[in-house]
C-alpha cells in the first residue's frame, strides 16, 4: 500500500519502509511522528485530505541537504558580484506504518515544522488550529500587516495565539518566515515584540 502525504509545502509518495528526507521537523532522533495531511491512500483520494488516514515514521536523524550556490554578477563598469551558499536543514525518516483510518486516535506525536509550536498528538495541524480558534484563539489581525489571508496561514501552521509568536527564537522565526514565504516580514514588522505586548493584554 502507498500513500501521498504533504509536509513542508511538498508532496511525497511513500510506502512502509521507505527512507524520506523532508524539511526539518520539530522532533528528535528515535521519536515516532505521524503525518496527518494525507492526500491519497491507495486509490482513495482526499478532498482535500483523506479523513482519518495517517502515515507514521521514525526520525533517524536531523541532517543538512547538499550545498546550493547562489551567484549574482552585474556586468559593465563598476560591476558587482556576490556568492552565497546554503544548506537546507532536513529530517531523515523511515516510514513505519500507513493508516487508512483511526489516525486521530493513535496518540502519536503530529509531525510539524521546526518553526512551529507543538501541535496536539494525533490531530491534523489544520484541525488543531480550528479547535484552538473556536476555544478562544487571539485575533492575529491585530499584528501590523496581518490580514485575513495571513491569519489563515498562521492557523494552518498551528499558530493561534500571540504568546506562541512572542516565544519564537530567531531560528524559529526564520523557519516560519521561510515556511510561509513572508520574505523577512516577521523581522521587518516586529511581530515578536508586538505579539509580546498584545499577549500581556
The total tally of domains equals: 2
* SSE string: EEEEEEEEEEEHHHHHH
Strand line-up across the major sheet: 3-10-7-4-11
Summed over residues and divided by their number, the pLDDT gives a mean of 83
Family: Belongs to the bacterial ribosomal protein bL21 family.
GO cellular component, one term: cytoplasm
GO molecular function: rRNA binding; structural constituent of ribosome
Organism: Rhodovulum bhavnagarense
Task: For this entry, give a set of tags.
four-stranded antiparallel β-sheet, alpha+beta, globular, 2 domains, single chain, five-stranded mixed β-sheet
Explain what you see.
- The protein is an alpha+beta fold.
- The chain has two domains: 1-114, no CATH class; 121-201.
- It contains six helices and eleven strands.
- It has helices at residues 125-134, 148-156, 162-166, 170-180, 185-189, 191-199; strands at 2-7, 10-15, 19-23, 32-35, 38-41, 44-45, 54-64, 68-74, 80-86, 89-99, 109-110.
- It has a five-stranded mixed sheet, with no helix packed on it. Strands 2-1-5-6 form a four-stranded antiparallel sheet, with no helix packed on it. The chain has a two-stranded antiparallel sheet with strand order 8-9.
- Strand 8 and strand 9 form a beta hairpin.
- The longest helix has 11 residues, at 170-180.
- It is globular and about 60 Å long.
- Mean pLDDT is 83; it is low at 117-135.
- Belongs to the bacterial ribosomal protein bL21 family.
- GO terms for molecular function: rRNA binding; structural constituent of ribosome.
- InterPro entries: bL21-like, bL21-like_sf, Ribosomal_bL21.
- It comes from Rhodovulum bhavnagarense.
- This protein binds to 23S rRNA in the presence of protein L20.
Amino acid at each position: 500500500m502507498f500513500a501521498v502525504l504533504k509536509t513542508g509545502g511538498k508532496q511525497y509518495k511513500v510506502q512502509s519502509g521507505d527512507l524520506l528526507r523532508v524539511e526539518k521537523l520539530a522532533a528528535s532522533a528515535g521519536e515516532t511522528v505521524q503525518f496527518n495531511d494525507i492526500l491519497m491512500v491507495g486509490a482513495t483520494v482526499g478532498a482535500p485530505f483523506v479523513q482519518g488516514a495517517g502515515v507514521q515514521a521514525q526520525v533517524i536523524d536531523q541532517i543538512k541537504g547538499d550545498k546550493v550556490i547562489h551567484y549574482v554578477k552585474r556586468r559593465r563598469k563598476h560591476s558587482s558580484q556576490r556568492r552565497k551558499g546554503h544548506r537546507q536543514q532536513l529530517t531523515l525518516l523511515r516510514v513505519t506504518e500507513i493508516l487508512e483510518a483511526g489516525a486521530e486516535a493513535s496518540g502519536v506525536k503530529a509531525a510539524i515544522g521546526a518553526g512551529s509550536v507543538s501541535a496536539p498528538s494525533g490531530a491534523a495541524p489544520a484541525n488543531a488550529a480550528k479547535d484552538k480558534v473556536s476555544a478562544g484563539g487571539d485575533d492575529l489581525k491585530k499584528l501590523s500587516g496581518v490580514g485575513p489571508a495571513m491569519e489563515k496561514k498562521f492557523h494552518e501552521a498551528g499558530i493561534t495565539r500571540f504568546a506562541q509568536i512572542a516565544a519564537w527564537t530567531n531560528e524559529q522565526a526564520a523557519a516560519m518566515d521561510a515556511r510561509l514565504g513572508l520574505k523577512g516580514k516577521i523581522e521587518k514588522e516586529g511581530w515578536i515584540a508586538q505579539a509580546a505586548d498584545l499577549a500581556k493584554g
